[in-house]
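Translate sequence into C-alpha cells.
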Amino acid sequence: MPNGGDRSPRTKRRRWVGWIALPLLIACGGNDPAAQIQRAGSWAATTRELAIERQVRGIGRAYTSDMLDAGQREVQKIARSLKPSDLPETLQARVPAAVGRLDSVIASTRSAVRRGDAVALGAAAADANALGDTLRALRAALGGK
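Result follows.
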C-alpha cells in the first residue's frame, strides 16, 4: 500500500462513514431550533450525497439503506423536538413543513435505492439539495450562521 493507494471497498466505506458522520457530529448542538434546523440540513446534504453515490454505484445498496433509515429516524426526532412556540411566528409553519418534506424525501430515496431506480435517485438528489437550501435559508432567518 505505498502512497496510500488502498482502494478496497472497506476503505471506501470507512471514508464515506467519516465524511457523512462529520457534518452530523458538528450539527448536534442541543434542542434549540437553530441547531435542529442545522441537523436537518445536514441530513438533507447526506441524503443528496447518498443518492448521487448510489446512482453511480459508488456505495452499496445495504449501506445506503441503513444510512437513510438512520437519517429518517433522526429527522423524525427533529420534527418531534421542534416546538412552534420556540420559533418566530413567520417560521412556525415553514420549519415543520420543510422538516416533514425532508422525511418524505428520505423515504422516497430509500425506496428508489431498494428498487435500483437511477432516475428516481437523481430526482431525490435534486429534492434533497433544494431542501438543504431551504433549511439554510430558514436557519438564517432564525438568526443562525
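Note: The two ends are 42 Å apart (CA to CA).
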